[in-house]
C-alpha cells in the first residue's frame, strides 16, 4: 500500500481487555502494517486465541504483525479462572478485581517489552491501563493513547469536566452541553458514570486514567475527520497531537475478515449470508447491543415484541450472558419464533456484525451506540435506531441523532448499570421500539433524506482510509512524527531508566 518502507519502525500496541477495544486495535495494527511499520500486539492468552485467526491471515498476506501474550493474573486478583476480558465479567463487584489484575500485569509487561526486537519505537496503549505512561517513561518512548470514541464525545467530556455545569442540575433536568458548535441538550442521568460522583476505588481509577491522558505524547482517535470536522478541530485545540485514523474496520475486505473479528461467530457466516440473500434490499433491521450490555429478560422480551410489531425482517443478536435460558423459555411458550420464523434470524452469542451490516439487505441498525458499532454502521451506510445503555453512549447518540442526523432515538432516558441486571431501569416499551424502527424505515422524504445522509457518510468513510484520504494521511503523519522523535532523541536502546 505505502511505497515507503518503515521496517525499522516498531510500534507496540497494548489494548484494553474488552472487545470494543481490542477489535479496533487489531484493525489499526493492520492499517499501520500496511504502511510498512512492524507491529506487535500484546494481550492476554485467551484474547490472543480469539485474535489469532485474524493475525494469522494478516501475516500470511505479508503484513509485519506479531501477536504476543502475557499470563493474566485472574485468580491472583480474585477473578474466576479464565476471566480475561470485560465480556467475561458477570458481576459489577468483579470490576475492581479486574483493575487489580491489570495493575499486576505491569511487571511482566515491562519484562517482555525489554526483550522485544527490533527495539520498539513507540507504544500505542489504551488509556484504561493506568500504568502505560509510567512504562513509556521508563523505556524513554513516546506513549500514545488510543481513544475508542468520537472527537464529539471527547470534546463533550472535556467541556463537562472543566465547566462542571452538571453539578447544579437535577438528574432529569435537560441542560445545554457547554462549548459546542451545535446546541445540544442532555440530562445528568445520561452522562457517563466517570463524570460526577462514583465509588472511591473508581474515583482513584478515573484519576489515574486522566493522568495517563495528560501525560501521553499524543492521541490516536478511532474516527475520521470528515465525519465530525468541527469537533475534530475543536478537540485539536485542546490536544494538539491528535491523529484520526479510522474507521479501522474498513481494513477488512473479504468475508472471512469481516466475519471473524474478535471472536468466533456463533452462526456459520454462509448460513447468515444465505438468509440475508433471501431478503429484499434495505428491508432488514439488524439489532445488536454490543459485547457488554446485559438487558433484563423483561427488557429482552419487549425488544422481541418491538421487532415483531415493526413487521420488518430482522436479525436479532442475543448475547450468551443475556439469560439465554429464560429467553428460550419465553420464545417457546409464547411461540415467538414460530410467529416470526419467516422473517426473523436470531443469533445467540457472537454475531459476524460487519459481515451482516455490509449486506445490501440490511436497511437499519438498532444499536446501543457503542462507538465501534456506530462507525461500522456509518461504513455500511445504514441509518440507525439508537438505544444507548452505559458509558458515553448517550453522548454518541446525540452525535448520531442531532449532528449527523442519521439516527432516530428509541427514547432511553438514563444510563444503566453495567454487568448487572438493572431491574430499576425504566423498561423501554415495545411500542417505542416499533415507533423508532418505523420512523427509520419510513419510505417518505424524511426517511429517504436520512438514508442519503447515511450513504454519503459511508462514501466519506471509504475515502478516508484509501490512499490519499484523511485517515491514510494521518497515519503517515503519525509515523513521520514518531520517526522525528527518534531522530531528535537519538536511537532508542530501550535502557530502563528507572
Ligand atoms: N461485535 C461483534 N459481534 C457481536 C457483538 C459485538 O462483532 O455479537 C463487535 C462489534 O462489531 C464491535 C465490537 O464488537 O466492533 C463492540 O464494540 P462497541 O464499541 O460497539 O460496543 P461495546 O461492546 O464496547 O459496548
Which helices and strands occur, and which strands form pairs?
Blueprint: E1 10-14, H1 19-34, E2 38-43, H2 45-60, E3 65-69, H3 94-104, H4 106-115, E4 122-126, H5 132-138, E5 143-147, H6 151-163, E6 175-176, E7 185-186, H7 200-215, E8 218-221, H8 229-236, E9 242-244, H9 255-259, H10 269-277, E10 284-288, H11 297-309, E11 314-318, H12 324-334, H13 336-340, E12 344-348, H14 353-357, E13 362-367, H15 371-380, E14 384-386, H16 393-403, E15 407-409, H17 430-441, H18 445-465, H19 470-489
Parallel strand pairs: 1-2, 1-4, 2-3, 4-5, 5-8, 8-9, 10-11, 10-13, 11-12, 13-14, 14-15
Antiparallel strand pairs: 6-7
Helix pairs in contact: 1-2, 6-8, 11-17
Bound molecules: uridine-5'-diphosphate (UDP).
Uridine-5'-diphosphate is lined by residues 19-20, 23, 261-262, 288, 290-292, 317, 350-351, 353-354, 370-373, 376.
Provide the CATH topology of the largest domain: Rossmann fold
Give the radius of gyration. 22 Å
Cofactors and ligands present?
Answer: uridine-5'-diphosphate
Strand order of the largest sheet: 3-2-1-4-5-8-9
Q: How many domains would you count in the coordinates?
A: 2
Number of helices: 19
Percent strand: 5-15%
Distance N terminus to C terminus? 39 Å
The CATH superfamily of the largest domain turns out to be Glycogen Phosphorylase B
Task: Throw out a few tags for this protein.
498 residues; alpha/beta; Rossmann fold; 2 domains; 7-stranded parallel β-sheet; 19 helices; 15 strands; 13% strand; disordered C terminus; binds uridine-5'-diphosphate
Give an overview of the whole structure.
It is an enzyme of class 2 (transferase). Belongs to the UDP-glycosyltransferase family. This is Glycosyltransferase. Its EC number is 2.4.1.-. 44% of the residues lie in helices and 13% in strands. The chain is of the alpha/beta class and 498 residues long. The protein folds into 2 domains: 10-250 and 464-487, Glycogen Phosphorylase B (Rossmann fold, 3-Layer(aba) Sandwich), CATH 3.40.50; 266-460, Glycogen Phosphorylase B (Rossmann fold). Strands 3-2-1-4-5-8-9 form a 7-stranded parallel sheet, sandwiched between helices. A hairpin with an 8-residue loop joins strand 6 (175-176) and strand 7. Helix 6 packs across helix 8. The radius of gyration is 22 Å and the shape is globular. The structure holds uridine-5'-diphosphate. Uridine-5'-diphosphate is lined by residues 19-20, 23, 261-262, 288, 290-292, 317, 350-351, 353-354, 370-373, 376.
Amino acid at each position: 500500500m505505502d511505497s515507503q518502507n518503515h521496517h525499522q519502525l516498531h510500534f507496540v500496541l497494548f489494548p484494553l481487555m474488552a472487545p470494543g477495544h481490542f477489535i479496533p486495535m487489531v484493525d489499526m495494527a493492520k492499517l499501520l502494517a500496511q504502511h510498512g511499520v512492524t507491529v506487535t500486539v500484546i494481550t492476554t492468552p485467551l484474547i490472543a486465541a480469539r485474535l489469532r485467526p485474524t493475525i494469522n491471515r494478516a501475516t500470511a498476506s505479508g503484513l509485519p504483525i506479531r501477536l504476543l501474550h502475557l499470563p493474566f493474573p485472574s485468580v491472583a486478583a480474585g477473578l474466576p479462572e479464565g476471566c480475561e476480558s470485560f465480556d467475561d465479567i458477570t458481576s459489577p463487584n468483579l470490576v475492581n478485581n479486574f483493575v487489580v489484575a491489570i495493575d499486576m500485569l505491569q511487571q511482566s509487561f515491562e519484562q517482555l517489552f525489554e526483550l522485544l526486537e527490533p527495539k520498539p519505537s513507540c507504544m500505542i496503549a489504551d488509556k484504561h491501563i493506568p500504568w502505560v505512561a509510567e512504562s513509556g517513561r521508563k523505556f524513554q518512548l513516546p506513549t500514545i493513547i488510543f481513544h475508542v470514541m468520537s472527537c464529539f464525545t471527547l470534546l463533550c467530556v472535556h467541556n463537562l469536566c472543566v465547566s462542571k455545569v452538571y453539578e447544579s442540575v437535577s438528574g432529569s433536568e435537560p441542560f445545554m452541553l457547554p462549548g459546542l458548535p451545535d446546541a445540544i441538550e442532555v440530562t445528568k442521568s445520561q452522562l457517563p458514570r466517570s463524570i460526577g460522583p462514583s465509588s472511591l476505588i473508581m474515583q482513584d481509577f478515573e484519576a489515574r486514567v486522566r493522568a495517563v491522558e495528560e501525560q501521553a505524547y499524543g492521541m490516536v482517535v478511532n474516527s475520521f475527520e470528515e465525519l465530525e470536522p468541527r469537533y475534530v478541530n475543536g478537540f485539536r485545540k485542546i490536544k494538539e497531537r491528535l491523529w484520526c485514523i479510522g474507521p479501522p474496520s474498513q481494513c477488512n475486505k473479504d468475508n472471512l475478515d469481516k466475519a471473524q473479528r474478535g471472536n468466533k461467530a456463533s452462526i456459520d457466516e454462509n448460513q447468515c449470508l444465505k438468509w440475508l440473500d433471501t431478503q429484499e434490499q434495505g428491508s432488514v433491521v439488524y439489532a445488536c447491543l454490543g459485547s457488554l450490555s446485559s438487558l433484563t429478560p423483561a427488557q429482552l422480551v419487549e425488544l422481541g415484541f418491538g421487532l415483531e410489531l415493526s413487521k420488518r425482517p430482522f436479525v436479532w443478536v442475543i448475547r450468551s450472558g443475556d439469560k439465554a435460558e429464560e429467553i428460550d423459555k419465553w420464545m417457546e411458550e409464547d411461540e415467538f419464533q414460530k410467529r416470526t420464523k419467516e422473517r426473523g434470524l436470531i443469533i445467540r452469542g457472537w454475531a459476524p456484525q460487519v459481515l451482516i451490516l455490509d449486506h445490501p439487505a440490511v436497511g437499519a441498525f438498532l444499536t446501543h451506540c457503542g462507538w465501534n458499532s456506530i462507525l461500522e454502521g456509518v461504513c455500511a451506510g445504514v441509518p440507525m435506531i439508537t438505544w444507548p445503555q452505559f458509558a458515553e453512549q448517550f453522548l454518541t447518540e446525540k452525535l448520531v441523532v442531532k449532528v449527523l442526523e442519521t439516527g432516530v432515538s428509541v427514547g432511553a432516558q438514563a444510563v444503566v448499570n453495567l454487568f448487572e441486571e438493572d431491574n430499576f431501569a425504566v423498561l423501554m416499551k415495545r411500542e417505542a421500539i416499533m415507533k423508532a424502527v418505523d420512523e427509520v424505515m419510513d419510505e417518505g422524504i424524511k426517511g429517504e433524506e436520512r438514508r442519503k445522509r447515511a450513504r454519503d457518510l459511508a462514501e466519506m468513510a471509504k475515502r478516508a482510509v484509501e490512499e490519499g484520504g484523511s485517515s491514510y494521511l494521518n497515519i503517515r503523519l503519525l509515523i513521520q512524527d514518531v520517526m522525528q522523535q527518534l531522530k531528535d532523541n537519538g536511537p532508542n536502546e530501550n535502557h530502563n531508566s528507572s
